[in-house]
Structure formats: structure tokens, C-alpha cells
Amino acid sequence: MSERPGFAPPADALEIADTLENQGFQAWAVGGAIRDELLGHPREDWDLATDARPDEVRRVFPRTVPLGIEHGTVGVLGQRGTMFEVTTFRRDIETDGRHAVVEYAASIDEDLARRDFTINAMAWRPADDQFVDPWGGQVDLERRILRAVGDPAQRVAEDYLRVLRGLRFAGRFRLTIDPETLAALEDGVDGTATLSAERVREELEKVLAGELPSASLRLYAQLGVLEIWYPELAEGRDEAPWEQNLDAVDEISADGADMRLLRLARLLLAPFVAADPLDAGEDAEAAGDVRAGVGHAVLQRLRYSNADQQAVSHLLRHYQPLVSPIDSAARIREWLSVVGADPARQLFELHLAYARAAGDEETTGYLEHTLKRVEDELLAGSPLSVTDLVIGGGDLMALGVRQGPLVGLLLDELHARVLEDPELNDPEVLTEMARELIDAAGLGELRPPEGSPDDGKEQAGWEEAE
């Protein structure tokens, strides 16, 4: 028989619960916090359920945020500044697979009966240390089973997002899906097409934030979710490279600052897996455009921000080829000038993740060696962009160059030479080099004739050279 669980919520959560109880209301900790505590994964965000109505909650607490008043949820700020969601007991009146019409309920049991899976349908009342588990969620956790509350088909039909949630929970917690629940999830896959892109995106991001997202992503493939929302990734999903790419997603640290977009980019590379980071085929630019196009299609479908779309598309476009261990320092600087410093590190991380997932020590070794050379160039402060040059467009116009595209072309040429030899990035050296380029191109004719009335004056977009 399961032992009586003990819980250790944050102090602010306890104080909010105590305040509600002192005002004559019930306060129960519910949902993921209870589940995670039972699994030994303590967390700071605890949700509370209460019989107090939203207006009563707002009257009790001086600092609140109307997070979802229409759904009965109020955000309450604790003494230490942390916000906790406090939601009035609810029961579903009508559902359509996307939205539910709810009304307030009188008891915690009614509230738990509307939840999706038994592992999320447990509650604990701090006031008297009462633990309620009407659907056997604690035993299911111990047996590593994911089971729907009540009738699985009804639960899924109420909200098709439960298909994606179920696959996320099963993968994250390594749960075996109860046969009836699995059948209901499979039957509900087509219904996920009616969900909003934002809800689907949020589920994907939660999967990618897990310790080993590959488990849930494999369930996405197994049940047919890929065909609905990620058709670009469905091709080749039964082949070894596709499986290895999912392992590579796991290899990217869940704690890294760039984890969210890096894991997303690694997933989107599934149709383009290649073991050799230097091999981009005969037309590297065209291959990069194809990768970026596929990524853009997926991210646009899921309504990612423009910034996210651009960042991930940039990584996909430049995924191959990388610089190699035998490339010159100038070639490495040239590559860095194209991809940028931070994306360069991210590109190496994408390739290292795949090599580690494949157990390819040789490729891992030369990637690490090349990355060290890249880092050395970055630490040296090499002028990697035109803006790093010590002279600019104004200096060129002062030499007599007409304002316009020609200024940019000259700066690009100067930058190309500085990439070859960073020591050339000196004001006097670059100015003399610019004079030579101007003279070689016959641009000196733009200067006013010596002794003319306009000699030494600005005229029509150019300036005196000397």
C-alpha cells in the first residue's frame, strides 16, 4: 500500500493557503506540484484550488493579477514576490475539443474529476494535511502508468490538446500508457488539427525543455502527430539517422541559455541529417536555402516570433559546411564574418550533439579542436564585420567618393583584406589602401578640377579628396 505522502511547498504558497483558510475558504494544492513532489522533483510553482470565487480572492489579497478571471484564475503575489495561481473549483458544462464552458463547483472532488490524467488529479490541503486521490494517481505513478481520469475517450474529446499533453507526460516521466488511454489518444490525433498553433507550440516547447525530449518526440511519430503538425519531419522517421537525430536533441544541454532554439533547430534538421559537418553537397548555398525553407515553414505554422524564425533559419542555412581543422585562420575569420560569433558556437553545438549521439569520437574530437580555433579568433578580437573597421563611410566620402552603393563596395573590399590580415585594421593603412582603390577605379575624376571655383568645396554628393 502506498505510504502517506508528505509535501513541502514554498513558504509563500503556504501563507496564501493559510490566509484563505482563515477567511473561511478551502485551499488545496493541486496538479503538477503534487505529482512532481511524489516523484521526488520539487518545484517552486504551486497551483492552488479553492471554493472562493475570483472576486473573493481579490478581496482577500492586496496584490493580485487577473490571469484568467473568465476561467476562475487569479494570480496572487506572495510576500516574497512570487506569484501563485489560485483557481476556483470548476466543473465542465460543455466542451468542443478546443474550449470548455465551465461553472464553479462546490468541492475539490468535482474539480479533480474534470482533470485529464490521474497523475494530475490529486490534491493536498495544508490546513489539515488531508490528501485526496480519488482516481488512484499515486498508485499509477508508482506503477509508471499514464491513465486518463474516467472515460479516456471522453477526456480526449473534451480537449484534443490532451493528446499532446499525454505524450509529453508519458515521455517525460517514462510512463507506459494504459491501453484504453492509448487508444483514445490515437483516435484523437486527427482532432489536434483543430487546435490553435499557439497551444501546439507551447506543448512542443515544454517537450523540448524536458530532460530527454526524444521519448515524447518518438511518441509524436508513433501516433501520427508529425503528419498533422510537422509533415516536413515525417519523412524518414523510421530510419536510423532520424532516430539518431532525436538522440542528438537530448545531447543539447537542457540548462543552456540557448537550449530552446538549439533543440528546436536540431529537431528541424531531422530530414537533413548528415554525419560529416563539412559535407554540404555540390551546392552548399542551395542546400542551406532548402533547410532554412523547411524550418521557416514549420515555425511560421506554429506562429513563432519573427526573431525566433530568423535565428533558427540562420542556423539551418549555415549548418553545413563548417570550417575544418585544417582551414587557415583567415578562412575561419571569413566564415565567422558570415555566420556571426554566437551562431558560430551554436552551429558547433548542433554538430557536436549529433556526433556524441552517434558515439563518433573522431568527429567529436576534430569538432572540439576546430571550435577551440574559432574561440581563439573570437578572443583575439578580430574585425569580423565592416563595422569593426577603424574607418567608415564618412572617411571614404572625405576622400572624394560619392555617397551611395560605391561606399559599401569599398568598405567590403577593405574588410576582405582585413580578414586576411587583421593588422591592416589601422587608420593610416586603411586610408592609404582606400586612396589606391579610388585611384585604380578612376574615381579621382569625381573631384573638382584643381583651381576651379568649386575646388575645396562640397559638390553634388562628393567632397574634396585632399
Short summary of the structure?
This protein is of the alpha+beta class and 466 residues long.
Give an overview in words.
By secondary structure, the chain is α+β, with helices and mostly antiparallel strands. Among the domains are: 11-140, Beta Polymerase, domain 2; 261-379, no CATH class; 386-446. It is 50% helix and 10% strand. It has 22 helices and eleven strands. It has helices at 11-22, 32-38, 54-60, 108-113, 137-142, 152-158, 161-172, 179-188, 197-208, 214-223, 225-229, 231-234, 240-251, 259-268, 284-301, 306-317, 329-339, 341-357, 361-379, 393-398, 405-420, 427-440, and strands spanning 27-30, 47-50, 64-68, 73-77, 83-88, 90-95, 100-104, 123-125, 130-132, 145-146, 176-177. The strands form three sheets. Strands 3-4-5-2-1-8-9 form a seven-stranded mixed β-sheet. The protein has a two-stranded antiparallel sheet with strand order 6-7. Helix 7 runs parallel beside helix 9 and helix 13 packs antiparallel against helix 14 (259-268). The model is unreliable at 445-466 (pLDDT under 50).
